[in-house]
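USER: My hope is that you can spare some time for a protein that puzzles me. I am handing you a single protein, as its sequence and its fold in token form. Walk me, if you will, through where the backbone shape changes along the chain. The protein I mean follows directly.
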Amino acid sequence: MGEPRLHVIARVGITEIVFDNPPINIYDVATRDELCDVLEVVRVDRDVRVVVFRAYGDHFSAGADLREFGTAPSLFAMRDARWGRDVWGLLRSVPVPMIASMHGNAVGFGFELALQCDYRIAADDCTVALPESRIGMIPAGGATQTLGRVVGTSAALQAILTAERVPAADACRRGFVDEVVARADLVDRTDALADTIAARPAAAVRAAKSLVWAALDTPLAEGLGREADLAAALSA
């Protein structure tokens, strides 16, 4: 059994999931399994109020481990194996706000995971990209669905079809990330935001997250009715 690919750091109300797969925090089967195991616990732990994703080293994540492709019959077979457990479904089932705190490369898996989060903070040295089209593939970690919801279809298609690398400042202008800070300030800014959210009444935060995300797929009248029901329940 190799070294752990990630570490879990818990402080009051906040769970940090820290990637640690040097040198570039690539995503492989071991990382997937560890992440799934952690998310299974986090999503049912009522003491967790905020989840933060960050990484040790120079990069948030430089994407998939291409070395694994050599052990599979094809690129597609290895990709099927890597996605054999539904980490993306688990991410969507986490009922509390999730923050991606990114630096260096946030490419492929790194960017797709960030897009599953509720807020994305990027250091000024961060670059995001979805490179799959270069090898005749498409993103399969949800980006074909999540990026368009975040920035609209035209901007999403441009990023996916060109596979371009987008620096932090440009990524913020396009809406790919929500905020850019100096690399030296990334941890402090992320902690401050997480602390602010964790200090809010937990039931209200969970209700707000569920309603806002559901609004993407729910007819307005139905969404307003659900909002009224949850508001009444919170008041009671």
